[in-house]
Amino acid sequence: MASSSSTSTWSFLITLICIFLFMGLSYAGDPFKFFNFEVSYIDASPLGVSQQVIAINGKFPGPTMNVTTNDNVVVNVRNKLDEELLLHWSGVQQKRSTWQDGLPGTNCPIPPKWNWTYQFQVKDQIGSFFYFPSLHFQRASGGFGGITINNREEIPIPFDLPYDDITIMIGDWYTRNHTSLRSTLLAGKDLGKPDGVLINGKGPYRYNDTIVPDGIDYETITVHPGKTYRIRVSNVGISTSLNFRVQNHNLLLAEAEGSYTVQQNYTSLDIHVGQSYSFLVSMDQNASSDYYIVASARFVNQSQWQRVTGVGILKYTNSKGKAHGPLPEPPQDEFDKTFSMNQARSIRWNVTASGARPNPQGSFRYGSINVTEIYVVQNTPPQMVDGKRRTTLNGISFVNPKTPIRLADQYKLKGVYKLDFPTTPLTGPPKMETSIINGTYRGFMEIILQNNDTKMHTYHMSGYAVFVVGMDFGVWSNNSRGTYNKWDGIARTTTQVFPGAWTAILVSLDNVGVWNLRTENLDSWFLGQETYIRVVNSEPTNKTELPMPDNTLFCGQLGKLQKPQDISHATSMRGNGSKFSFMIIMLVSAIFVVFQ
């Protein structure tokens, strides 16, 4: 018979194990996913010309981050570039965690040869996104990769589970690296026509011996006949809208940047800079030959832009030969953007499907919420501001402060920025300022994006999914609200605004932080076409914003607080991970004591 002491010891141990298992189950719903990113230069020749590109772990593009709703994501970044670096997780809403957004308004840059660790949760999100370097025009040299956020197993998806998942990065490309392109812009010049379009970092298949030189490495995607694949496509380029199509295959649109869509078939879809979609593609052809995958420039003279076309290969495992003949035709509307706008309007929210949560997406009835704040945000073509060629929003060309906005608020610094971004365009001469929007926590903001430029723009808002409720040609007026879609307008992070047209978005300001509103056209963004929206809870609490991370970097007015490179700080973690580790240590210690 066991002694009373032994019995009580075992009872204690069993109780401790039960507590541990309970806590473990509590954390099991929010597991950690770890990534190590070494960001460096490599030599590559995607268009047949040797050049320096930015790689992640030696790969261009970088690896796809495959995570699940509510995962805690930890990314240790080693900057092996010769200049500062920030990585931005475009479309990840960083709920309660503006500190991790990877933009100069929220983060000090990672110096060369330094490590720094991002830690954020993909809270209540699903969908297709991408990451990229956000400083110094670096995205023009690469450093980008896909982000896939999968549904939790208990949440149904609104289609049969695909056979496999494929990520495709498309984008315009120059054979000059980002430092050369940056110098061109700073000299007051346009970048000119791109040298080509890449598909997953590779140049075009030689579909035409005259247009495509020999020796170009091209992307080949191998598939099984009769299977359906989910193909996620992101335009990670600089400024060119691209039409995406797969020869002889329908693209069944299923999701756009975190929202399941009403499922519709397209023979091709315009994907503008910064946008991401996922399609269900059935491999239902006879495989008499391989098939072209095409990404070609939109709204241009096709005969002059033939070289600015990305071509890859879709190869069935039972294919009987190589792809041949002309490429599938793009839309024939160089001077008429009506088809493209109608296509954009046709993308609608699937209100009955569950997203990241069990309840239907449409249970958030955005159309019945009263608007509390209205901003008409207008761009213009590049113009001279203070003797420099700049771009503007509402007459203001944004200047990034040396001290990030969020950090300035944390330390109550004065004069870093102004909360005076105008609600309508200024009437006087343009100016260069750090002027931002003062958003109201739990307010409901209407933003009208008016494109007075001569080229297509896409606009992105960090921290949120916005409801795209209307778009049309001409100048927006109060009467335009009569055309708004108040029921199933798509919720996404990036929306197109056609030249000479407007797009209206609605956003519920429930995420505390400092959030970037910008054009995704990299040249215009670099020259000042952005601002930030500051959302503050007047009653600070960890429930609406997490504390400043232990490994925060300091710069600008706070640079004196920055210690020399300290890897222990650079890789410090916060939150559940350390608690979970503590539990394990406690359990092991208890078991050790029992068996002494």
TrEMBL record:
Species: Solanum tuberosum (Potato)
- Specify the domain of life of the species encoding this protein: Eukaryota
Q: Which Pfam families match?
A: Cu-oxidase (PF00394), Cu-oxidase_2 (PF07731), Cu-oxidase_3 (PF07732)
Signal peptide from the UniProt entry: 1-28
- List the keywords (alphabetical): Glycoprotein, Signal
Which SUPFAM superfamilies does UniProt cross-reference here?
A: Cupredoxins (SSF49503)
Domain named Plastocyanin-like is located at 39-153, 165-318, 403-538
- Name of protein: Multicopper oxidase
Q: Which family does it belong to?
A: Belongs to the multicopper oxidase family.
Gene3D superfamilies, per database record = Cupredoxins - blue copper proteins
